[in-house]
């Protein structure tokens, strides 16, 4: 928009002038720019003689008003909601524009009339800018001038704000207030005399502390005397903070906002009244032969003024309607078609049409009517095109393209200045990307069809359009003949006059300035195009339009080439040349021209490395041959370079290449140590007619156990011209080559395999190199990279490819004396990667003595036999590891005493124990070697996996490692499970007596308390799969709580039905068959340490079982948990024992009920015996028994049963007389038992 007058197109805001502040302001009016003679001569001068306000308050006021200035805000309704004015600071003296122009000087005709005694005609004076005023630039038939907009936007304010100081000295306050009144009255008088509706606002700023009542009186007095209302006089204390100053400024602007809007509304009413008269005003002086402005022209003026005043009020809808009316009037038959093309008024009318169209676009963008704005833009372009074709020199010239560039830039600037929300709102699904275009504001169900280019696009779209127009402008300008580009001073006046109308110069330069014939600087097309492209690229980048960005960068590069900026062109072209997207899309034609341009730039700046890279790629058949390009890499001139040599590394995976290397293995089925045939083919995809490529060497790197392979150039006397040529290459280890032969710096001291072949490749030829390699280790084997090397003079080139995943490998066979291609596999990477299988080892590993099942806590010895069935001596290295599902479930170590390092190398948290590898030395063919592992501390019943790995080398092939492994499962289960039965027994020992004092030793820990005795039975069940011999079984106490000691006896076997009393010959050792249960009995006694201790005793017990297998003498120990025994040592109880007392043929049994009182209380028990149909008894049917503390007594009954070999129930009721508690009868020996309900039975 810089081609138009600034005041013509800027958005109009209410103008506020600040007077009386002495602070720097960059927005001060520049008289040389904002003033004009017509706006100053005869103006109304306002002068304020009061001192300027200085200090922090003045600075804060100015900053606050500056913050409220809306000049820099976007041209959109959302931006000016809070700030809607334009603020300027002026000096103490200011001249308002004159309302009427001065009378013109008397003409000779009028002077003669006065001399004859006739009165002079009355003159009608008008505005200095009116077409009716002779001194106006529009006189007599001009339509509009930007000076009118300048007058209202920069010279004629809607509010004049003056700042005066209110003194705080009471001695001089009255005098100073009178001066203030005089200053205000003087300024108000000047404004009133102008008939302008400018509002005078006075702001009083205190210079000290003033009493509030006095302040109110003084301000009221000043307001009344100066004739100001409450919204025209304000006061600001001298000590106001920045926040208070900011709030004060907001309140002042809010108060005067309505009057400012009314000011411009009154101006609109005035213009509307003039338009309604529908007559042409009378000019001050009638023009001679010229015609005055017609009525349609006056209506255009009025409509344009109404639109501008509506913009001042921010009523953009009303402004848009006025502009549209004015626009149609301009293109009416009475205006544009009646103005002579050669007249300056024609270009003034075109300029006004552009400005009205521009302001219409801004109004539409302001109200979010982007699609309508684009249509309006297109309509104006089409109408101007029609006008130019009808009235001027047509559109096939540089002036029309200049206007098109300007008009496209207008749309870009409008979108940028308006910050159009639909184009500047970030897309939610992307990261910081903006929309490319905005959708139409019309309803979706509208029947009107939406054309894509009628939608509002971002600024880059329009700038690209402007760039194309500028390029077309340059093209048309270069076609101007030299005689038409001569400056006026060098051509006769008649020739200049005759050619003045040949070219349209609207908004552009004359031909002699556009493109001077003398070679001097004219219009800088390249600079304009480059600046436009840079800005456009930025906008396209913010929308993520990468392809468009690349195209525009290409345009920039071509422009740089046109200006011979070679290095800058290279910077732009190199990313495009390397563009992956262009290569993937197959844009080879475009890349070809970029490559040629880059090569030309590289040659001009002598960039040898870049030139070499470009020649390598441009030699490929995907590009066409350039006749002026030398494709010989050896012909590059490096003499001008300071460096001795140039090293060039090319990645063939990211670049096209004239040589395509392919590598393939002959088979997938290969074992370690077996020779493997490989082929490396070089397909020459070079342009026909270009010189051959002579490689110095080829390097092949592998992933796996193969050494790097080098093919070194050795010229062959018999050159072949066949399309395909197969060469057998014999590889040699680098260590066997002599120093004079192996001079390749690339191999260094790394162990490699080297072969020699002719590496001279002709265009269209395929050379196949076949050789053999020997894998030395098992595993995946693949080709990692292939590097083609050229060393010619100062050139050192290395082209490498390492991506073989997408390549289809080929295999060449000799048929009929010539190579024939055979596909190895249609899938990608078919034979580029193979899996080398280990050579089948003949070493055998056996585990002869392993059991199917092992048991917890058993020491396991796993024996392995290693048998060498190879024909050569073998050097063995043995590795072992044990894998357990639970960490710490067992321990493993080598069993042999010779393997002294028994510590595991690694014990991971995952339960894997790795033992240190053991070197077994060399064993002969057919010889055996035995190794053993010990597995101990197997505390958990889980399955373990033991893996034995034997790595060995044969004497005749020490480089090949053979691997033999054997895995065995070691299943560990629990050997036993037991349940337990605790039965109390009568302790026959005498209880302590109160009449006997025991012999005690203070330092002795002898137990002196009461003793309880129990018979414990363990029912042991075998889970073993083989018979188990129990050698010993013990019941042990691991923890005793309650102040007692515990003792147990060794377990003895209880055979089924054995109820006899145990003696010294009781059986201890026993064999338990699989799934068999064996009973073991134990005597358990518990004695309190202190007599009278009433605490309950808790005992944690464990069953220790010593067992062995029948075929082994090694005894293992298994520990089983036993339920905790809780003994209430202070509770009374009743224990029953039975003994037979036969008399003759009568079967008589004696029942002894022992009542115990271990407490320190006197207890009385009510005893009663229940009768039974199974026996007769003698004894007390009921009785009362009293027991003293720490005593016991026996109640005896004799019974005679009427049945035999049976269990009969006996029920003696024993009730505590005090507590009412019934005591349970406990079995005290053999022949007595109780059931779950507590019923007592005896065996008779």
Automatic annotation (TrEMBL):
Read off the Pfam families from this record.
Foie-gras_1, Gryzun
Q: Positions of the region Disordered?
A: 97-116
Which positions fall inside the Trafficking protein particle complex subunit domain? 345-620
User: Locate the Gryzun putative trafficking through Golgi domain: which residues?
Assistant: 648-1240
| InterPro entries according to UniProt | Gryzun, TPC11
Name of the molecule in the record: Trafficking protein particle complex subunit 11 domain-containing protein
The species is Exophiala bonariae
